[in-house]
Amino acid sequence: MRRRTLLQAALAGGAGGLLSGSAVPVSAQQTGPVAGPLPSPLAPGAAPPAADDEAGWAAVAAAYPARLQTGIINLEYGAFGQMPLAIQAAYERYTAKVNQEGATFVRRDFVGYYQTLRQRIAAMVHADAGEIVITRNATESLQAVIGGYARLKPGDAILMSDHDYDSARMAASWLERRRGVTVISIDLPHPATHQSLIDAYDQALAAHPTVRLMLLTHLSHRDGLRQPVREIVAMARRRGVDVVVDSAQAWGQGPVDVHGDGVDFAVFNLHKWIGAPLGVGALYIRKDRIADIEPFMGEEPSERDPILGRVHTGMANFAAQMAAIDALDFHQALGTPIVGARLRHLRDLWALPARDLAKIEVLTPDDPRLCAGMSSFRVKGQTTPAANAALAARLVEKHGLFTVVRTGLAGGACLRVTPGFSTTPDDMAKLVEALKEV
């Protein structure tokens, strides 16, 4: 047997790949138990706190690593979310278990954990487990689904926007060279409204009838703009256009319903807002569309579980995937709506006052349909990466506020602000005061 993803034979073919040389059968439907009580940020019997319940959120924050003692306030939780302490401890236990038991565990028992993780992700995004494959991150998922999209021929076109993730845009450009297709990029309207975003894609598709595939970022990593996914996907489908939805930043900040939104292809991260260890993502392909994504580099997919052949990660971080199950338990103890409301509350504490400042431009709309906890700003007229990098340096050096520069938007560079579970209203007030001095 040629080298394949370690789990694929076990998951799709009766565990033969993991049990080479072993007579012990392992069912593909086996589930892996999670040791100990389910982790939770809440005291027994306690209800999740309201968005502005500071005592309640202080108790939640205590379940996470302590704030930095360097005087720096982290307002860049968009890169990745810190693991709760209980998840970090579980990850360390699982790492020790994998290291101690080695292949005897991985080849016989890990498949149950993998299947459990697939089932849990599927339930949360309203999919079927057979439509989910675990990856290392959303970037790997994007590259697999874009690069493997099989319904393109020379002369067809791919549509993307200035808000799409760089790796997705690069994958589309790679198809331009590989498949002889045209890549069309549009600039989304600013300031954006719910209808203007729908209209922008509708007008672009009307102007370019050869488009067959479209990239759609659910929540932009550049400025925090949330797209009306359901409406745009439905509009594209009426024109015969397939859509790849990037929900890497959206999932966990808000609910995701792939079946309800009519989504055929979507990607996710579990180390953003779910709280899993770094290196766990997922790819969703609607069951009746799996055949439209080519097997990865000649992979031989199983008829029983064909989505597994669409990604080939190789050796995975088994302990991280095991701990991701605990992270889902932890996240769901609060619930995505509660998490989203808290992050949006913190966002409004700085973005709404900043919008009234004469020198500050807040890029992200205040419409709750179009924003979440992540938002961006810049000094009016200061659109270069250098100017925004200088402002970021000033904020951290003078005020102890750590933000990040984002580039790629048609309107220019900006600074992104992303609160997290340990962020307080005082942190947001300090940001507003710092912006008043700009």
From TrEMBL:
Entry annotated with the keyword Cell division: no
**One Pfam family matching this protein:** Aminotran_5
Per its UniProt record, what InterPro entries does this chain match?
Aminotrans_V_dom, PyrdxlP-dep_Trfase, PyrdxlP-dep_Trfase_major, PyrdxlP-dep_Trfase_small, TAT_signal
Aminotransferase class V domain residues are: 86-387
Kindly indicate where the leader peptide sits in this chain.
Answer: 1-28
Q: Which UniProt keywords apply?
A: Lyase, Pyridoxal phosphate, Signal
Q: Segment Disordered: which positions?
A: 30-49
According to the UniProt entry, its GO molecular function terms are: lyase activity
Kindly provide the name given to this protein in its UniProt entry.
Answer: Selenocysteine lyase/cysteine desulfurase
